[in-house]
Amino acid sequence: VLLDILHQGFNDKLASLRGMFGAGAYFAEDPEKIDQYTREDPGHEAPGLERLHSRLYRAGGHQHPGDHIFYCFVVRVTCGACFLSRGFKDKLRDHDSDFQVFVNEDRRELSAVPGSDPRIPYHTLLVQTGKEAKHRIERFREVISFSANRAYPEYLLAYQRV
User: Fold this and answer.
1) Entry pTM
2) Residue 125: in which H helix or E strand, if any?
3) Rg of the chain in Å (alpha carbons)
4) How far is it, in rounded angstroms, from Cα 117 to Cα 126?
């Protein structure tokens, strides 16, 4: 997947319909949030990672550092008209405002900005944190983009947990 993103960018058509906040690409401001979704690169000889390793760790260049390597992207996301939410009442409606956040049950497209003429859909969803039961997340805000054209993977970072 890393090589596909490096060469082609993000593909919103592959977004899971089961995502908590819709079928979009999920981004976070805090690396601690994304770290919970990464998988370890078990080492230079790991089966299935030969293509990635051949591009990242070329002969005469950087060497694979060994065990316990993880990867993440630093991404530029254009938020545009951003809908702020602290959680949903159901799969379509915002808990606080009762606003219908998504156009339909697929949850791939956000509803239009109220009063926009012609109608302009919200571009991104920003889910705020909170401790109350109605909030869906407690620690880290999430940004969900529903168009691959609004997210640019600028850097790929390799890191080790400490």
Assistant:
1) 0.87
2) strand 124-127
3) 18
4) 23
Which tokens in the block code for residue 157?
Answer: 């970072």
Q: Cα dist. 92→29, 86, 103 in Å?
A: 24, 13, 8
Contacts of 48 (CB under 8 A, 6+ apart): none
Query: What 3-state DSSP class applies to 94?
Result: strand
Overall domain count for the chain: 1
Instruction: Name the nearest CA neighbour of 29 among 70, 69, 71, 74.
Output: 74
Q: pLDDT digit of tens for each residue in the chain (162 aa)?
A: 888 898 889 988 888 888 889 999 999 999 999 998 999 998 877 788 888 998 888 888 888 888 789 999 999 999 999 999 988 878 888 888 899 999 999 999 999 999 999 999 999 999 988 777 666 677 899 999 999 999 999 999 999 998
Domain range enclosing 10: 2-159
Residue 85 belongs to a domain with what CATH number? 3.90.228
